[in-house]
Specification:
Mean pLDDT: 79
Protein name: protein-tyrosine-phosphatase
CATH superfamily: Protein tyrosine phosphatase superfamily
CATH topology: Protein-Tyrosine Phosphatase, Chain A
GO molecular function, one term: MAP kinase tyrosine phosphatase activity
Number of domains: 1
Shape: globular
Distance between the termini: 32 Å
CATH class: Alpha Beta
Region (Disordered): 78-114
Oligomer: single chain
Radius of gyration: 14 Å
Low-confidence stretches: 89-93, 100-109
Biased composition (Polar residues): 88-97
Largest sheet: none
Structural class: mainly alpha
Organism: Notodromas monacha
Length: 114
């Protein structure tokens, strides 16, 4: 589904009744899997585009477990991005990751700071 849409340059609508928990959880998992983002980076990416997101506690726990399982791929992707941007340090790696997935500027929001 997503690869077909991406090849055609069109978007994909992900929705649920309220649009703040289930659809957001699916989108976060997709970004984590497809782009090897951490949960925090995926959360920041989505929140910058849609401010009212609030995955429920159980979903967040499942996403954290998914992140733990995906950690080797995440670390490899992180190293790859840092190698592509030698001027970046580990301190600004979140900004580098955001640029890699098309993120704009915006403040640094955190999954657990809200």
């Amino acid at each position: 589904m997503d690869d077909e849409a991406r090849s055609k340059g069109v978007g994909v609508l992900v929705h649920c009744l309220a649009g703040v928990s289930r659809s957001v959880t699916f989108t976060l998992a997709y970004l984590m899997f497809k782009l090897h983002l951490s949960l925090n980076d995926a959360f920041d990416f989505v929140r910058r585009r849609k401010g009212n997101i609030a995955p429920n506690f159980t979903f967040l726990g499942q996403l954290l477990e998914f992140e733990r399982q995906q950690l080797p791929a995440l670390r490899a992707r992180h190293r790859e991005l840092l190698d592509d941007h030698p001027e970046s340090s580990s301190l600004d790696s979140t900004a580098t990751m955001s640029k890699a997935v098309g993120g704009g500027g915006g403040g640094n929001t955190s999954l657990f700071s809200q």
